[in-house]
Structures are given as C-alpha cells and as structure tokens.
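Lecture 7 notes: from sequence to structure.
We start with the chain below.
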Amino acid sequence: MTAVDTAPAETATGGGARLARRAFAVRELGIALALVLLVVTTTIVNPRFLSAQNLKDLLLGSTILAILAVGQAVVVITRNVDLSVGSILGLSAFATGAVFVAVPGLPIPLMLVVGTALGAVLGAVNGGLIAAARVPALVVTLGTLYMFRGVDYMWATGRQINAADMPAAFLRLGTATVLGVPVLALFAAAVLVAVGYVLRNHRSGRELYAIGSDPAAARLSGIPSGRRVFYAFVTSGALAGLAGVLHAARFGTLDANAGLGTELNVVAAVVVGGVAIFGGSGSVYGAALGAVLLTTIRAALPVLGINPFWQDAAVGALILAAIGLDRALSARVARSLRERKAHV
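Predicted structure tokens for the same chain:
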C-alpha cells in the first residue's frame, strides 16, 4: 500500500480521535454547566451561599472525595472498580491517629508518606488478586472492603482518638489556607494535575484506556494488561491512604467508622463525572468535577428547601443521566467512525 493509499485511513483515524476528544469535552463541559447552574440558582435563593466561608466549606467538603475519585477513575478507566477505598481511607485515618499517639513528634510530611504507603500496600493486595488470580474486581474489592474494615475494627477495639491526642500543627493542616484557598484543596489540585498528566502524556497512562476499551485487543497488541491493572489499583489505594491522612487532619476525632460508605459516593462522583463505567473513556478532571458537583448538591438542596430524601434521589438521577449520556455519546462516536470509514 502506498503513502497515497494510507493517507485517507490516517485522516479517518485522526478524525475519530478528534471526535472522541470532543465527546469527552462535552461531558466535562456539561458537568461544569450543571455546577454553575446549581450555584447560580442557590445564590438567587440565598445570596450567602457564595460567601467566602461557604466557598471554603465547599472546597473542604469536596477535597477528600475528589482525591478518592481521581484514584477510582484510574481503575474504572481499565474497566474495573475499587469498592474498598472507603475502608482503606478509614484504616489509614485511624493509623494516622495511632501513630501520632505513639510518636507525637513525627514530622507531618513523613506521616503523609506513611499513610500513602499504607494505602498503596492495601491497593497492591487488590491489584495482585485481580491481576494474578484473574478474579473479578467487583468480587475482590467487595471482599477487601470488609476485610480492611475488620482490621480497622480489631485495631480500634472501640477506642476513639481525639483531636487532643494529635499535634496541633497537623490539625491546622485541615483548616489552613493559602491566599484564601484551603491547603487540603491544594493537595487535591496537585494530585489531579499529576495523575491527569500521566494519563494524557505517558504511554502507561494511554495504555489504561486501551485496556478498558478492549482488554483482549490490548493483550494481543503487547500491552502488559495485568501489570497496568495492578498499578491502577496501587494508585487508587495510595490516594485513598493519602485521603485518610487528610481526613484525620480535617476532622481530628477518629474511630473505626471513618470513611464508612464513602465508596458509593466515590463511584457516583466518577460516573457523574463522565468516566464510562464500561471503561476506556473519561478523565480524572471530570471525576473531580463530579465530586465537586455532588458536594455542592448536598449543600445546596437544603438551602433550596428540598427534602433530604430528594438529595439521594437527585444523585441517583444524575448517575442514570450520566450513564445514558455516555452510551449516547459512544454510539455517536461509533456511528461517525463508521461513516468516515465508509467514505475512505
């Protein structure tokens, strides 16, 4: 085949890639517009909703969920799911308090490393079982959800660690600001930029999308699928461990119930953020936007005088709408690619 013959095919491929990128942009733009509309509507009802303190509270409220959503998005892109993130957060948070009780003078940066490393080890347990034993991620992480939580309960034995038991400097980390922006939000932004850069610009990151799009084809093309999935779960675990340390800094009071049920909110944020539950598409930026949107919904609906029941109903409706939009966009991209190929 000559260069002239291959040019149309290359053009079609490039056009398909551009179309897919536009589809992803539509998802994230839709989330951003929904967020703006919600904020504007709530502010009209109660102008104090956009006060500096309330904005700070919204940022703090969405920070930990956003970090967890970024890690979950990496896993979901590979056509998997991690249901153990809430338990990893809880175990890391209690470990943070227990370590500070035992070693009060431990440097805060070192504690951040310890919590992240603990999460990475727990994520490696998930990834090892899934990649090596080829057990479905839903089954494995459902099991480790209870296993990690059980370890937390056995460690805590009903104890509660209070703010007075931890260093004041560490607790200030949970409320400190830089130019009015909470430090915890800066942590989330750094995580978002770093993971987003790797997924977009590194071969290993792009291969995660290939695995999620078609696992069999990815293996046949030479992509080390098992290793990539393993590291995706390590990443999710590490970010859940980091979130546990930040949870301890923000709330101060810790027990074995920290992070209980969080995994469902994390999956909801990822799906609402446009990451396809079927794998292969979406971005961590959309997942983070989804986390901010869910946090804002829970803060805005009471201000609008809406019954708390409808808060959960609204989240459920958003999830269904996101899945429907994903299928519609996927069908549109596939149809456009077929039309392009037909004209080649």
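Points to note: Residues 1-17 have pLDDT under 50 and may be disordered. Residues 152 and 287 are 28 Å apart (CA to CA).
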